[in-house]
Structure formats: C-alpha cells, structure tokens
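Board notes (copied after class):
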Amino acid sequence: MNWKALSAVVVIVGIAGFVWYVLDRSANSEYNDTVIETVDGANSKKTVKETLAVESEDDYQEKAAKAPEPPVAIDGSDEQIRTAAATLSEPLATWLQPAEQVRKWVSVIDQLATYRFPSKHLPMTYDKEPFLAVKTESGFQNDPGNYQRWNGLVTTVTAVDPKNLAIYYKKWSPFLEGTYNELGNPQSFDNQLRTMIEHFLMVEAIPADAALKQPKVLYEYVDPALENADPLSKWMWRLGPENMKKLQDWLRELESYL
C-alpha cells in the first residue's frame, strides 16, 4: 500500500460510502423512509477524543510521518480525495463523481449517527441490481441473490487496513472537524463517527428466510418485530449474514484503534 498517496478521508469514503449505498432506491426497493430523531440535548456536549489507541503502536510515528498533510482548505479538495481513493481502490475513485466530497461524506455520517437518511446531495454513484423477492406459498421471501449485490462494495471496504485508516484519521481529524463545524451542530464529527460505528455493531442477524409481504410498492417484513426495527438494522439484514459479519468484524477492528 502506498502510504504517501493515501489520505485519512478514506475513513469517510470507506465507512460512509458503504453505509449510504446499502440503501436500495430502485422501484422494487425494500427501503423505507422512516425518520427517527435521537438528538438528546443533555448529551449534546462537543467531544473529540484527543489520544487514539493506534498511537501506542510501535510503528505509529513512522507511518504518521509518511501520511500526507490534509488540504489547506475544504474548497478544491475533491481531486485530492479522488486521487487518494484511486490509490486505495480503483472502484472507489470511479464512484466518487459528485463534487463537494468532504462536505457530503461528513453530512452523511452525521445523519446516519442520528438515524436520519440522506435524501439529496449524494456523494457517490454505485450501480447495482434491483431488489428481488421470491414468491412462496405463504407470501414472499428475500431472494438470496440480493446479497451478491453488495459483495463488491463490502470487499472493497473491508480490504482497507483498519490500522492505517486510524493513523490517517488522527492526522486528518482537525480538517474533518472543521468541515463538520460548517453544519452548525453541537456534537463533534468524532463523536458522530463513533456513534455510527456503535450502531452498526449492535445489529444482530435475522433468519435468511424471514417472510415478506408487499402491501404496496415496497416489501415489508411479516413479523412486526422485524418490520418495526430501526432502519439501520434493516439495511444490515439486506446485506446477508456473511457480508454483515464481514463488515462488523472490520468495524470492530477499526474501532479498536480509535
């Protein structure tokens, strides 16, 4: 891996890119538009962890010294981000077509940390097949082939070394916080990133043959306990058990360095 060409913004590209594009927005999508507000005024103090676990690694100083400095300004940083992503993964560079990359990724993470869904100003383009359901005697079930839609994305994200991402995140944290401050929210970007990761790690798998129904356009779970689950859990379930475990293992390792 060429350290001089990478940047810590890959943390945003890798994690947030995966999260956002787990959304299925096709005509046959299982995506639902539920919005959950979880802003607690009592816990709105701005906090940024000053020392990361990765700093205790023997090779931290050496690798941190090789990491590039963050952009001097948010405006005009798109090309630098795409170049870093291309060095890490050609698919990532292909997907990062929209402008204002840093602002859009920071916004996506902020919204996901509070269970709100981005609906415009998307930072990526990622093509995949539409969601399919298999008709059974009792109704519908998820087509197992749906899981394969996310194989490439999950593989690309989890191929990134979590330790390296943590090192770059440490160096780029002030730049990311500065971008986040533009949103005018009381929390810090660091807090929102950690909160989002925790939400992902709390999701538990469900039976692959969970029954579905189609009352209108979108599919819903027959079991009320599943249908009433939070949207983030539903996204993870659509990945399939193998992809879900792979992502959670990767996030758990990343979290251990943060």
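Comment from the instructor: Residues 181 and 188 are 8 Å apart (CA to CA). The two ends are 21 Å apart (CA to CA).
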